[in-house]
Amino acid sequence: MKYVRSGLSTLVLVVLVYFLDHPIGALPPLGQLLSPQHGFWQNAESKDHSYSEELTLPGLKGPVQVSFDDRLVPHVFAENDEDLYYVQGYLHAKFRLFQIDLQTRAAEGRASEFAGDKALRFDREQRRLGMRFAAENALNEIEKDPLSKQVFDAYTKGVNAYIDGLTQAELPLEYKLLGVKPDRWSNIRSALLLKMMARNLSSGTEIDLSLTNAKSVFLPDELSLLYPQVHDSLMPIVPKGTAFAEPGITPVRPITADSVFFGKSSKEPVLAEEKERPDPNNGSNNWVVAGSKTQSGAPILCNDPHLELSLPSIWYEMQLHGPNSNTYGVSLPGSPFVIIGFNDSIAWGVTNAQRDVKDYYRVRFRDESKSEYWFDGQWRKSKLRIEAIQVKGKPTFFDTVAYTLMGPVMFDASFGDSLSKGENLAVRWTGHDPSNEGLTFYQLNRAKNYDDYESAIRTFMCPGQNFVFASKSGDIAIWQQGKFPARWPDQGLYVMPGEDSTFFWQGYIPQTENPHAKNPERGFLESANQRAVDGTYPYFIPGRYITPRGITIENTLASMQQVTVQDMMDLHQNYFNTLAEDVRPMLLKYVNRNALNATERRYLEMFEQWDLMADPDSKGQTIYECWFDTLQAAIWRDDLEQVKPSAPWPEEQTTLEWLMRDSTDLKFIDNRLTPQRETLEELVTTTLQITTKVLSEYERQGRLSWSPFKESSVNHLLRDALPSFARKKLRVGGNGNIVNAITKSHGPSWRMLIHLTGETEAYGIYPGGQNGNPGSRFYDDYVDTWVSGKYNRLWLMKPEEFNKASWTVQIKPL
Amino acid sequence: MKFWISLFATALLSFVAGIYLPWWSIGIVAFLIAVVMPLRPWKNFIAGFLGVFLLWIGLTMWIDQANGGILTARMAIVLPVGGNVIYLHLLTALVGGLVGGLAALSGCYVRAVFSPEKN
C-alpha cells in the first residue's frame, strides 16, 4: 500500500511537472512561462527600473560609456570603431533580441524553426529566391575588405556577448511564449538582414510573371495603355528639363525579341506565382530645401520611409560617437551603423527607387534531376544546392534548388502551382550579386561634405535608393543609387528565354549616369517613389512607380518661400489627396444625378463638398476611396479575369489618366460579360449606388469617417498571434498616395527633420519605442506622439552633457 | 506548529531555489521538506500547496504593482483567462501550488516507505 501510494503520487507529480515543462501542441511550457521567477513575470519591468550598470565584457578593447536619455535612446561614446560597433551590437541584442533573431531567420528561410510547418511554403520561397546565396555573396565581399570585416566582427561579438550572458529569466518574452531559444549571431546574419531589406524594397518592384500572363490576352498597344512606362502627370526626381548625357552603353535588342514576346507561340501564360510579394506600400518620401528658400538660410532635410509598421519597430534610435565620427539617427537592429540620420556636418535620408532589378528566365532541363539545362546550343551543368529546412515538431524538409548562369531556378516541378507542369523559372536579381552596402553607411556616418557623400554611395548596389543629402556648408543633392541593368526596350518586362545568352543583361548603367541633381536653381529636391526621370532619360527603366505623393510635395515646396521647420512638419503630416483632386471632377461629370435616391444623393453631396483632405475625420475620403475602387473594379475586372492565373491591375494613376485622355474608347468600359454595352456614365452611377449601400452599413456602426473606416494598426512582429501586443484602431488619416502615407498597416516608420543650422536642430519620431520588451513602459511610448503628429527633439549629446543623462552604463573590457 | 514551519520553509526555500535553479525546483523543495518534516499526508499537501501558492501570488502581485500592470493587461489576453488579470495571478499561483502540494504529498508518502516503525 505504502509503495503503491508513494509510487503513484510521485508518478503523478513527475508527469505533471513534465507537461508543465514541455510545449503541448501550440501551448508553451506553462510551468516555465508562469513561474514568477523565470517566466513572463520576469519581463514585467518595474516602472522605475534603472538601466544604469557597470559591465565587464569580453573582447572589448577599451572603456565605453553609454548614456541613456529619458526616452531610452543610447548615446554611445567609444575610443575606437570596433568598440563602437561592438556596443551597438550589444544594445541591439539587449533591446531587440527576438526581433533580430526572428527577422534574420525569416530572411534565411528558417521561420519554420519557430512557427512549424505552416511557415514551410514561406521558407522554401525565401531559399528558392536565393536569400542565403545572396547573403553569402555579400559576406564574401564584406570579408574581403579588412575595415568592413573588423566592423562586422565587432558587431557580432557584441550581440553574442549579450546572448551568452542571458539567463532563462532574462529571455525575451516571445521566446518563452514560443518555447524556443535564441540562436547565436554571426556576420552572415547581418548580411541576411540587409538582404531582407533588399528583398522588401527591390523584389516586389517587378510584375514580370503576371505581366507575362497579361500579354497572353492583351495586344501590345493594349499593354502599353494598361501598364504605361511614364505617367502624363509625372513630376520626376531629377527636375524636368535637365539634359542627360549620351548613354555610355547601348544594349542591343535581340532580333528574336518581338517574336519571343509577342509572336504566336508567346501566348503561353506562366502558372507559377510568388506568394510572399513585398508590399507595394513599401514606399517613402524625402526632400531637402536649400538655404536660399528657408527662413534661417540653412538647409532643411526631411525623410519618412514607409514600411510595415511593427512593434518593436524596424528602427532603433541611437547616437554613435567614435574617434572620427559623431552620428545620430536610426539604426537597423541586426546591422551596424546609423542608416538614416545626421552627423556634425551633413544629413541624409533614403527612399526606395522602385526600379525593376529582377527578371525571370524560362529554363529547359535535360531531365528530372535538374542537373543539366539547355543553353546556347548545348547541355550545361547546373549547380544543385540542397536546402535543409528544420521544422518545429516535424522532420527536416529537404529541397533541391538548381543554380544556372541566370540564377537559382526558383520555380520548378517541385515548387509552385500544382498545375505548372514542369515550368522552370530561374530568377536573375541584382540582390544576388556581390556587394557591400554596409560600407556606404560606414562612410556616410563619417561624411563631411558633398564629395564624401558622393563617394560613400557609389558602392551601394541593391536595393536601389534615392539618397537625399544636405550639408552645413549649404549643398543639397539627390542621387538615385543602385546597380541597374542597361535594358533594351521591353527587356525584362516579361519572362525571357533562358536558352539563349542574347537575352541576358548586357551590362549596367554606368554609376555616373544614375539620375541625380545637385543644388538646383529652384532650391529644393524631392523623391517619393516616382519615376526618377522623364522620358528623355536614355535608358529603359521599368519599375513600380508611385506618382501622386511626388506631385503634392513638389507643388507644395515650389509654392513656398521662407520655409520654417514648422512648415516641413506640416508637409510630413500633409493629408491632401492629389489624385482625388483630378478624379473628383471626372466622377461628378459622369454621375447621373436623376438615377439617385435620397441616400445616394446625400453621399454624393458629402463627396462634392469634401475638402480633399484624407484626415481622420474625413467622410469624403472614405466615399472617394470606396467609390473609385468600386469603379476601377467595374471597369477592369471583366477584362483582367480573362487572364489566367492573374494579371496586374492598372494603377489608379493610369486609370485616371486614361479616363481623362479618352473617355470615348469604350472597349474596357463595357462589361464583356453582359449582352448590353455599358457606358462610363452607367458605371460611375451604379458604383456610387453600390458604394452607398456598403457605406450605409459602416455609417450605422459609426465608421463612415476615414480613421475608423481604415483602422490603422501597429502590429507585433507575430501579428495575429499576439493581438494584445499591438496598438490598434489608431486615430490617423492618410493613405498610400497621400504624403502622410499611413495605410492599414504601413506608413511613415520614421519621420525625421534636420535643420542644418550651426547647432543642428533635429526632430524625429517612429511609432514604437526603444525597448522591444512588451513588459516595458518604453515598448510603445512613441506611438501616441506619432499619432498626434508630434516629434521628439533629437539630442546630439556632448561629453560635457553626460550629467544630464537619465542612466549611464560604464563598460570595461574583460 | 510543524505545519506552519513547513509552509513557511517551503515558501522561503522555494524562493531561494528559484534564484539559482529552474522553475521546477519548487517541487524538489516541497518534496524534501515533507521528507524532513512529515505531517499527515493531507496536511503536507496543504503546507506544500499553500507555501508555493502564497509565495507565487505574493511575487506576482509585487511584480505587477511595480510594472503598473503593463504586461498583465497584455498577457491576460494571450493566456486563456479572458482578459481578467486577477485570474492570471490565480492561474499562476494555482499551477505553482499544485506542484508544491503534490511534491509535498509524495515526499510524505516516500518518507513513510523508509520509516515504517513511525506513525
In short:
The complex is a heterodimer of chains A (814) and B (119). With 814 residues, chain A is of the alpha+beta class. Helices cover 33% and strands 19% of the residues of chain A.
Written description of the protein model:
The complex is a heterodimer of chains A (814) and B (119). Chain A is of the alpha+beta class and 814 residues long. Among the domains of chain A are: 1-34; 47-201 and 803-813, Penicillin Amidohydrolase, domain 1 (Orthogonal Bundle), CATH 1.10.439; 578-710, Orthogonal Bundle (Penicillin amidase (Acylase) alpha subunit, N-terminal domain), CATH 1.10.1400.10. Chain A is 33% helix and 19% strand. In chain A, the strands form 5 sheets. Chain A has an 11-stranded mixed beta sheet. In chain A, β2 and β3 form a beta hairpin. In chain A, α3 crosses α7 and α19 packs across α21. Chain A is globular, with a radius of gyration of 28 Å. The N and C termini of chain A lie far apart (59 Å). In chain A, 52% of the residues are buried. The mean pLDDT of chain A is 94. The mean pLDDT of chain B is 93. Chain B is built from 5 helices and no strands. Chain B has one domain (2-114). Chain B is elongated, with a radius of gyration of 16 Å. Chain B has 119 residues and is mainly alpha-helical. Chain B starts with a helix and ends in a 5-residue tail after the last helix. Chain B is 82% helix and 0% strand. Chain B has helices spanning 2-20, 25-36, 41-67, 70-78, 85-114. The chains are: A alpha+beta (814), B mainly alpha (119). Chain A binds chain B through residues 2-3, 5-6, 9-10, 12-13, 16-17, 20-21, 30-32, 34-48, 168, 173, 177, 722-725, 774-777, 779, and chain B through 15, 18-19, 22-24, 26-27, 31, 56, 59-60, 63-64, 66-68, 70-78, 91-92, 95-96, 98-99, 102-103, 105-106, 109-110, 112-113, 116.
What is the topological layout?
The complex is a heterodimer of chains A (814) and B (119).
Chain A (H helix, E strand, L loop, with lengths): L1 H20 L8 H5 L18 E5 L6 E5 L5 E5 L2 H28 L3 H4 L4 H9 L2 H14 L1 H19 L8 H6 L8 H16 L5 H7 L5 H7 L30 H6 L21 E6 L10 E9 L1 E2 L4 E7 L2 E7 L8 E4 L2 E7 L5 E6 L8 E4 L2 E4 L1 E9 L2 E11 L2 E5 L12 E6 L7 H10 L3 H8 L7 E7 L4 E6 L14 E2 L18 E3 L5 E4 L20 H11 L6 H8 L5 H13 L7 H12 L9 H22 L11 H10 L18 H21 L5 H5 L1 E5 L10 E4 L15 E3 L2 E5 L5 E5 L17 H5 L4 E2 L13 E7 L1
Parallel strand pairs in A: 1-29, 3-7, 6-23, 11-20
Antiparallel strand pairs in A: 2-3, 2-29, 4-5, 4-22, 5-25, 5-26, 7-8, 8-9, 9-10, 10-18, 11-17, 12-13, 14-15, 15-16, 16-17, 18-19, 19-21, 23-24, 26-27, 27-28
Helix pairs in contact in A: 3-7, 3-9, 6-9, 13-14, 17-20, 18-19, 18-21, 19-21
Chain B lengths: L1 H19 L4 H12 L4 H27 L2 H9 L6 H30 L5
Helix pairs in contact in B: 1-2, 1-3, 2-3, 2-5, 3-5
